[in-house]
Amino acid sequence: MRYPHFILLCTLSPLALGKLCPIQGPAFPAPKDVASSSSFTQAKNQLLSTLDKAVHASNASEVTGIDPDSISFSLQVFNTKSDQPLLEYYHTAPSIRNSTVGVREVDADTVFRIASVSKLWTVLMLLIEKGDASLSEPVAKYVPELRDAAKELSHNATMRDDEIDHLRWDEVTIGELASHMTGVIRECTVSLGVFLTSHQVN
Ligand SMILES: *[C@@H]1O[C@H](CO)[C@@H](O)[C@H](O)[C@H]1NC(C)=O
Ligand SMILES: *[C@@H]1O[C@H](CO)[C@@H](O)[C@H](O)[C@H]1NC(C)=O
Ligand SMILES: *[C@@H]1O[C@H](CO)[C@@H](O)[C@H](O)[C@H]1NC(C)=O
């Protein structure tokens, strides 16, 4: 796609101008002993008491937008160096106190459905197992319909020149899809629509 190339060029341009461009890294060293930091303890206590107030306020659902009588949650903050949470907070909604399925008390061991967050784990596992090479591969390599759409585009100059309505799927990578950098519009009806109609796919 065009945009990532444009961004890449912008990133490289200081090099081309002969300016030094240091390798990006953390601006500050990672904190070592957060648990014993007084600033952290202060912020932690403030957060916990704010949460407590929010959850137990009589108008809690108006203030937070969630109803603490029907929503249970766990909050844990970890340091990568330790298994013990730096901060933890558990809220059990009164409505599950007599529940016959699942737990009646939310604690550190409660298991939640994580829904869409599971996508993060898929990508993390992919990175660990296979490295990041597949992220720069075109998505058309794996999806035959997109490969065919790209082929059709390459044979039709009118479609190829219409960069608003027709995507060059052979240039769109898995990494660009994962980082929302493809420029693919939400309802990509024209680009795929032409292809789907011409191939009579329903
Ligand atoms: C909720 O209650 C608190 C304390 O009584 C009050 O200060 C606040 O304005 C209330 N918020 C709303 C949105 O009603
Ligand atoms: C749970 O059961 C107790 C004892 O039977 C009852 O007093 C309470 O109202 C019930 N709570 C809910 C949320 O149903
Ligand atoms: C190219 O695509 C346009 C727009 O979809 C279409 O009208 C035209 O017939 C196509 N040309 C060829 C040679 O297939």
From TrEMBL:
Domain Beta-lactamase-related: residue ranges: 102-184
For whether the record's keyword set contains Signal, the answer is yes
The protein's name is Unnamed protein product
Leader peptide range in chain numbering: 1-18
One Pfam assignment: Beta-lactamase
Gene source species: Aspergillus oryzae var. brunneus
Q: Which family does it belong to?
A: Belongs to the beta-lactamase family.
Source species taxonomy: Eukaryota, Fungi, Dikarya, Ascomycota, Pezizomycotina
Query: What superkingdom does the record give?
Result: Eukaryota
The record's keywords, sorted A to Z, are: Signal
Q: Which InterPro entries does the record cross-reference, listed alphabetically?
A: Beta-lactam-related (IPR001466), Beta-lactam/transpept-like (IPR012338), Beta-lactamase-like_AB/R (IPR051478)
